Structure formats: C-alpha cells, structure tokens
TrEMBL record:
It is a multi-pass membrane protein. Residues 15-57 form the Cardiolipin synthase N-terminal domain. The chain crosses the membrane at residues 6-24, 36-55. Pfam families: PLDc_N. It comes from uncultured Thiotrichaceae bacterium. It is found in: Cell membrane. The keyword Transcription regulation does not apply. The lineage of its organism: Bacteria, Pseudomonadati, Pseudomonadota, Gammaproteobacteria, Thiotrichales. Its main location: membrane. GO terms for cellular component: plasma membrane. This is Cardiolipin synthase N-terminal domain-containing protein. Keywords: Cell membrane, Membrane, Transmembrane, Transmembrane helix.
Length: 59
C-alpha cells in the first residue's frame, strides 16, 4: 500500500541521501536553508533527493 524501497535500490538511495546531506551541510547556504534541505531529504528520500539535485544549494 505504499512505495517500498529495498534491496540494492534502497542501499543506493541511502548512499545518495547521505551524499546529498553532506553536500548541503558543506554548502555556503544559510543555516535555515540547510536545515530545511536536510529535513526535506530525510522525510522524502526519493523526491527530496531529486529536488535537492535540481534546486538545492550550490557551492
């Protein structure tokens, strides 16, 4: 009744989410923006990762 992520695909998503969170924390964005992006990535793993890649803080 929901989208389940498991196996090798789940592991890949986990690694990419950790990478995205590290990049967000290392970015030059403000603290509030960083917290918001980390929360989005944690609450919406697939969608949050895609949104971060397209519109997240750069640098």
């Amino acid at each position: 009744m929901g989208i389940e992520v498991g196996g090798i695909f789940g592991l890949i998503v986990l690694v990419l989410n950790v990478f995205a969170i590290i990049k967000v924390v290392q970015s030059g964005a403000g603290t509030g923006s960083k917290v918001l992006w980390v929360v989005i990535i944690l609450l919406l793993p697939l969608l949050g990762l895609l949104l971060w890649y397209l519109a997240g803080p750069k640098g």
